[in-house]
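Hi R.,

As promised on Friday, here is the backbone we talked about, encoded as structure tokens. Could you run it through your design pipeline when you get a chance and send me back a sequence?
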């Protein structure tokens, strides 16, 4: 059975188009920016609540102007993305307050972070821009 996540397209006029998917973290509803160029899925630290954050001094450097040599990560035991539950999802953790403010003002959405290429490579089979769908690999045991 083919499963898909629907995304919303936001037109930021001169800055181009941005894709957003709905998500739920800690029983709160948010949006994630779909970014095929982002190496990692990144969640804003304020969204995590009581979820443990781990520091990795020799970890990957996060982009968006960061000069840091370390990366903080967290494992989300359950996160809903596009109405589908994903378990034990490891994410990078960062202060995305500037990005959150921008999307709040320009698109009137409550942003949690960025859905990166790590998630897409592991879970997606294709993206249909015209249908605004990200198609996912079957869950283990289904149609193998």
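Update: got your reply. Pasting your designed sequence below so it's all in one thread:
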């Amino acid at each position: 059975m083919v499963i898909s996540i629907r995304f919303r397209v936001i037109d930021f006029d001169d800055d181009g188009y941005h894709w957003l998917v709905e998500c739920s973290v800690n029983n709160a509803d948010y949006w994630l920016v779909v970014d095929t160029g982002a190496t990692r899925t990144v969640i804003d630290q304020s969204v995590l609540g009581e979820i443990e954050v781990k520091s990795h001094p020799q970890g990957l450097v996060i982009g968006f102007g960061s000069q840091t040599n370390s990366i903080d990560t967290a494992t989300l035991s359950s996160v809903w993305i596009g109405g589908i539950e994903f378990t034990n999802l490891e994410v990078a953790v960062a202060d995305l307050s500037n990005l959150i403010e921008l999307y709040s003002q320009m698109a009137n959405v409550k942003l949690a972070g960025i859905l990166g290429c790590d998630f897409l490579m592991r879970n997606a089979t294709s993206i249909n821009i015209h249908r605004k769908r990200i198609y996912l690999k079957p869950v283990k045991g289904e149609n193998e």
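One thing I noticed while checking it: The longest strand covers residues 71-81.

Thanks again,
M.
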